[in-house]
Amino acid sequence: EQLNKLMTNLRNTSPHFVRCIIPNEAKAAGEIDSFLVLHQLRCNGVLEGIRICRKGFPNRMIFAEFRQRYQILAPTSIPEGYIEGREASTLLIEGIDLDPCEYRIGKTKVFFKAGVLGHLEDLRDERLAIIMTMIQARARGLLQRKIFKKMMEQRIGLSIIQRNIRRYLVLRNWAWWRLFTKVKPLLKVVK
């Protein structure tokens, strides 16, 4: 089972090389000798590789993916219509106002220093929160306007009913009305 998970992970990530680290000298399951693991990582050059990678541009993203994910940060920086991916990414980065030392634009990808994508994700999350708040506010406003309109229609209906009841109360005590209601059944109206 563990081997299958490892093989699936290797297929999904397509690594360039694999380093095997022995967790303990006794080869016992579940035990890790931290000093031994650290020594192996230092001797294999893994820690040095990580340090070098962090000095460079370890994070990369394809132009189309970068544009799709982060255009929300500077929506007006890219004009409408089709624009080549490299040019669109350049305009978007200028719109976001990233420090030129923090990124490089390649032939098919944008490369970022460590931590820059995390910062962009934080900015994106803030922007999405603002947009979601605006959408919720509009939806609540629409619902409240519908409720208010219904209440106003009910109020108008109530005032009409009250007006008619008041008129009826005045009219039923009027002598001519009483005479009319008594005579009306006696009249035979022919159409």
UniProtKB/TrEMBL annotation:
Which protein family is named in the record?
Belongs to the TRAFAC class myosin-kinesin ATPase superfamily. Myosin family.
The alphabetized UniProt keywords are:
Actin-binding, ATP-binding, Coiled coil, Motor protein, Myosin, Nucleotide-binding
List the Gene Ontology MF annotations in alphabetical order.
Answer: actin binding; ATP binding; cytoskeletal motor activity
The cross-references to PANTHER family, in alphabetical order and at most eight, read: MYOSIN, MYOSIN-11
Q: Name one Pfam family in it.
A: Myosin_head
Protein name as annotated:
Myosin motor domain-containing protein
Q: Does the keyword DNA-binding apply?
A: no
